[in-house]
TrEMBL record:
GO terms for biological process: 'de novo' AMP biosynthetic process; 'de novo' IMP biosynthetic process. It catalyses: N(6)-(1,2-dicarboxyethyl)-AMP = fumarate + AMP; (2S)-2-[5-amino-1-(5-phospho-beta-D-ribosyl)imidazole-4-carboxamido]succinate = 5-amino-1-(5-phospho-beta-D-ribosyl)imidazole-4-carboxamide + fumarate. It comes from the Archaea. Residues 357-437 form the Adenylosuccinate lyase C-terminal domain. Catalyzes two reactions in de novo purine nucleotide biosynthesis. Catalyzes the breakdown of 5-aminoimidazole- (N-succinylocarboxamide) ribotide (SAICAR or 2-[5-amino-1-(5-phospho-beta-D-ribosyl)imidazole-4-carboxamido]succinate) to 5-aminoimidazole-4-carboxamide ribotide (AICAR or 5-amino-1-(5-phospho-beta-D-ribosyl)imidazole-4-carboxamide) and fumarate, and of adenylosuccinate (ADS or N(6)-(1,2-dicarboxyethyl)-AMP) to adenosine monophosphate (AMP) and fumarate. Homotetramer. Residues from neighboring subunits contribute catalytic and substrate-binding residues to each active site. It is an enzyme of class 4 (lyase). CDD domains: Adenylsuccinate_lyase_1. This is Adenylosuccinate lyase. It comes from Zestosphaera tikiterensis. Pfam families: ADSL_C (PF10397), Lyase_1 (PF00206). Pathway: Purine metabolism; AMP biosynthesis via de novo pathway; AMP from IMP: step 2/2; Purine metabolism; IMP biosynthesis via de novo pathway; 5-amino-1-(5-phospho-D-ribosyl)imidazole-4-carboxamide from 5-amino-1-(5-phospho-D-ribosyl)imidazole-4-carboxylate: step 2/2. PANTHER family: ADENYLOSUCCINATE LYASE.
C-alpha cells in the first residue's frame, strides 16, 4: 500500500516513471556497462563484456537487488553482485572493477536528471507559450493595477500576464544553465583519483561517458560536488515560487469582492456549500511550492561532506530529488491547466477601476501640475494627497474635487479630462509586452 502521497497523487505518470525503482536500477546497470566499455578500451577487461553487461539490465529485478541489500547493507554491492552472477564467466568478475559506488550512483543520477529536466522544460515551455498567447489576447483589456493590495494605477490584463512571460522565461534559462553543471558524469573511482585503473583512468572515463552522452566533472572527490544538486533544487524552487505567485494572483482575483478572473471547471467547490467556485488547483500550486522551498534547505545541507565523502547526502537525496521533481511537475501541470481554463470578467475589471472614484489618476494630475503649472513636484504631490483624502471623505470623485480646488483652475479642461481617460495613461505597455514576448522567444529558441 502506498504511503507517500507522491506515489499516487502528485506528479504525472511520465515523471513517476523516470524516478521509479525499476528505471533507476536500469540506469545504474547502464552505467556499469559503460564502465565495462571503458575497461575494455583500457585493456582491463575482455572485449564484448560491456554489451553483455548492458543486456542484463532487463533481467535485473528491483526486488532481487533490494532483498540482497537488506542482507549486505549496501545497495551498489547488491546490484554488482546480482549483475555479476547473471553475467557469469569471464565477464562477471570484471563488473565494477576499479569503480566506486558513487561512480554508478552519481552518473545514474545524471542520466535520470537529464530525462526529468526534459519533462520540466517541455511543460514550462508550454506554459510560457500559453502566457504569451494570453498576454496578447488581453493586451488592451483595462484593469486596475494594485500595490500593497490597494488600487494604484491602470494597467491591462495582458501587461500583467506579460510579467509572468518574462519571469518564467528567466527560469527556463536558469534551468538550462544549471543542467550543464549538474548533468555530468563521475567516473573516477575511490576518492576520485582513478587509482584503481593504474594510469588508464582517463581512458575509462572518456569511453564510458562518451557512450552515455555525458561530459565529466573536471575533478571530484569520491562523489560529484553537491553544489550542482543544490543549484538545481534552487532553480526548481525559484520556478516553483514564480508559479506560486501566479497561482496566488489568480486566487486573489477570484475573490468575490474582486471577481475579475475565474478558473473554468466542472469540479465541486465545497462539500457543504453548492455555490462555491474554489480556486483549488491554484491553492495546490501554492501548497506544493512550500514543500519545494523547504527541500532547498536539505539540498544546501548536502554540500558540506566530511573529507572526500560521507554518506549523509545519500538518504537525503533519495527523498529530496524525486520529490522536488514530482512537486514541480504537478505545479507545472496545474499552472498549464489554470492558464488554459482562465476566464476573464472584463465587466468586473471595468467596475473595479471606478471603485476609488478616479483617485488612481492622482499621479497623472501631479505630473500635469509640475509640467504645465510649474508647481514643484513635492508641493504638487502634497496638494493631490490632500485632495485625494477630501475625495474619499466626501464620497466625491477626484476629478470633481480637483476642478473645484484652486489648482484645478491652473490646468486646461482638456488636460484634466485626459488624465481621467485610463487608456491614455498606460505608458508604453504595448512595447513592454512585446519586449517580454521577444525575450521569451529568444530564451525558448523560438
Amino acid at each position: 500500500m502506498p504511503v507517500c502521497t507522491f506515489e499516487w497523487r502528485y506528479g504525472s505518470n511520465e515523471m513517476r516513471e523516470v524516478f521509479s525503482r525499476e528505471h533507476i536500477i536500469g540506469k545504474m546497470v547502464e552505467v556499469e556497462a559503460a564502465i565495462m566499455k571503458g575497461l575494455e578500451a583500457a585493456g582491463l577487461a575482455p572485449e564484448g563484456c560491456w554489451e553483455k553487461t548492458l543486456s542484463t539490465a532487463k533481467y535485473v529485478e528491483p526486488e532481487e537487488v533490494d532483498a540482497l541489500e537488506r542482507r549486505l547493507g549496501h545497495d551498489v554491492v547488491a546490484l554488482v553482485t546480482v549483475v555479476s552472477s547473471k553475467l557469469g564467466e569471464p565477464c562477471g568478475k570484471y563488473v565494477h572493477l576499479g569503480a566506486t559506488s558513487y561512480d554508478v550512483v552519481d552518473t545514474a543520477w545524471a542520466l535520470v536528471l537529464r530525462e526529468a529536466l526534459a519533462i520540466v522544460k517541455k511543460k514550462l515551455k508550454t506554459l510560457i507559450e500559453l502566457m504569451i498567447e494570453l498576454s496578447r489576447k488581453y493586451r488592451d483589456v483595462l484593469m486596475v493595477g494594485r500595490t500593497h493590495g490597494k488600487h494604484a494605477l491602470p494597467i491591462t490584463f495582458g501587461f500583467k500576464l506579460a510579467n509572468y512571460v518574462y519571469e518564467l522565461s528567466r527560469s527556463y534559462e536558469r534551468i538550462e544553465e544549471v543542467e550543464g553543471r549538474v548533468v555530468q558524469g563521475k567516473i573516477a573511482g575511490a576518492v576520485g583519483t582513478m587509482a584503481g585503473w593504474f594510469g588508464r583512468g582517463l581512458t575509462v572515463e572518456e569511453v564510458a561517458l562518451n557512450h552515455l552522452g555525458l561530459k565529466p566533472h573536471a575533478i571530484s572527490t569520491q562523489v560529484a560536488p553537491r553544489d550542482g544538486f543544490a543549484e538545481l533544487i534552487s532553480a526548481l524552487a525559484i520556478l516553483g515560487s514564480q508559479l506560486d505567485r501566479f497561482a496566488l494572483e489568480v486566487r486573489e482575483l477570484m475573490r468575490d469582492e474582486i471577481a475579475e478572473v475565474f478558473i473554468s471547471s466542472g469540479e465541486v467547490g465545497s462539500s457543504a456549500m453548492p455555490h462555491k467556485r474554489n480556486p483549488s488547483i491554484a491553492e495546490r500550486v501554492c501548497g506544493l511550492a512550500r514543500v519545494l522551498r523547504g527541500l532547498l534547505i536539505t539540498a544546501l545541507e548536502n554540500i558540506p561532506l566530511m573529507h572526500e565523502r560521507d554518506l549523509t547526502n545519500s538518504s537525503a537525496e533519495r527523498v529530496l530529488i524525486p520529490h522536488a521533481f514530482l512537486a514541480i511537475d504537478q505545479m507545472l501541470e496545474d499552472a498549464v491547466a489554470i492558464a488554459s481554463r482562465l476566464e476573464v470578467d472584463e465587466a468586473s475589471m471595468r467596475r473595479n477601476l471606478e471603485l476609488t472614484k478616479g483617485n488612481i489618476m492622482s499621479e497623472c494630475l501631479t505630473s500635469k501640475l509640475v509640467i504645465l503649472g510649474g508647481i514643484p513636484r513635492v508641493e504638487a504631490h502634497e496638494i493631490l494627497r490632500k485632495l485625494s483624502r477630501e475625495s474619499f471623505e466626501k464620497g466625491l470623485s477626484l476629478k470633481e474635487v480637483f476642478i473645484k480646488s484652486d489648482v484645478g483652475k491652473t490646468l486646461p479642461a482638456e488636460e484634466i479630462d485626459e488624465c481621467f481617460d485610463y487608456l491614455k495613461y498606460l505608458g508604453n505597455y504595448r512595447e513592454l509586452i512585446e519586449r517580454a514576448v521577444s525575450y521569451a522567444k529568444k530564451a525558448l529558441g523560438m
